[in-house]
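Researcher: I need the complex structure. Ligand is S-adenosylmethionine. Inputs:
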Amino acid sequence: MTPAARLQSAAEILDLLKKSRRPAEEVLKDWGRNNRYAGSKDRRAIADKVYQCLRARERLSFAMDSDAGRSLVLGALHFLDGVSIAEIDDLYTGEGYAPPKLSETERNRLEAPDGEAPEWLESGLPEFVVERLKSVYGDNWLKEAEALMLPRAPIDLRVNGDRAPLIAGLEMLGYKPEPTPFSAFGVRLPADPPPNVRALPAFRQGTIEIQDEGSQLAGFLAGARPGMTVVDYCAGGGGKTLALLQAMQGEGRLIASDVEKTRLNNIKPRLTRAGLEADLRQLGPDGEGMEDLEGQADLVLVDAPCSGSGVWRRRPETAHKLEEKEVARLHELQTAILHRASRLVKPGGLLAYATCSILPDENERTADRFEADHPWFTPRAVAEVVDTPSITPEGAQTLKSIAHKSDSRGHRLRLSPGTSHTDGFFVSLYRREP
Ligand SMILES: C[S@@+](CC[C@H](N)C(=O)[O-])C[C@H]1O[C@@H](n2cnc3c(N)ncnc32)[C@H](O)[C@@H]1O
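Model: Output:
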């Protein structure tokens, strides 16, 4: 493909993404399958341009006064890559597979200075998200915003067992694995070139799972131990279920529940692969189906439905679609779910609340409200739980200091790509009074 034809394809894919709810990665894969003339270098160049536009979408659509795929690509070429208008004219010839020539409006937008853009546009994030980042991170907000949208996030694996042999095996296959700094069972692979984890024998044998280090930590910090009765209340596809079972070392009982049956069904093959067992339960809309567990659980983990803003570096196409009113709805839903789930905790038992969001509305505000309405749940300091075999000793020290900065009582942990180099995660820990 010519460079111009690649630009035309990137613009078309951006238009497809605007209408679609599917992840950009899948849409790009489908496009590659349906357009066999595109070689691997073409597909790579097209994907790079698509992701560059998605990450800077707010800024580019402001500069071009349009969020059409073509406008975003033109804006990226000129404002981000520094391609001159004369060079763009050479590419946008309208001949063969090249994009049509520049219109007068487009030319005027490209010629207009980009300087009057408001400060928040720099980050590529919606304005209300920038406000929230400022409230949490102060002057560091832009650094956090950039890390949140940084391309090529590494792929983390959780190893069910000793990670050293896996690291050696991956090195023999030509990969460049690193042990993760916090999780003692984590292995980090660079995103480039993209590792085909599902083809690895260790994946098929159930020894490894793809799981960001932040998500591993959320599972480990919940405090599951052998012999406990544990409820993974919003189990979804089971990422944390498996981490909890790993901490339980095959002793005790785990109940994984969710309102979505299809999600719960996804846990089954993962359990089978890892040779583990759990009781899977579909909940009714108001939490029906757990009556027998009221006041019975040693530990309840609520990995609540959330905006997913903590994983925007992996799915930048979702960032600009998030609306403030959706965040308000999620806060209400999280509050209701946390209340329902807390009833399952036995006196003296543990409760952990987690999200993969960076927004205080879904994190601190939900935790504040729960604490105000449930004074019989007392905060449990992260420092009390980090010294476990699942967390490295150096990682434990760092987590203690992050928790201390997150809240003076030290029971909340805010992880982010900018501070812990993980996805964005929030964890808040409690113990029910005996
Ligand atoms: C963040 S996801 C869970 C991810 C999962 N724990 C993991 O580690 O892979 C949140 C889950 O909450 C579920 N959910 C939504 N509303 C719920 C409700 N009212 N009660 C329980 N679960 C709910 C969603 O179906 C979704 O699977």
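Model: Summary of the prediction. Residues 155-209 form a domain with the Alpha-Beta Plaits fold (CATH 3.30.70.1170).
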